Amino acid sequence: MTPLPIIAGFGGISPAGRSSLNRGYQRLIENTLSQTQRQNLAASLAGLSGAKATHSSPEALLRGTLIRALENNLFDPQRQRMHTSLQLMPEHHRAGSHSAEDGGELRFRIAKRQLPTS
Question: How far apart are CA 57 and CA 62, in angstroms?
Answer without folding.
Answer: 9
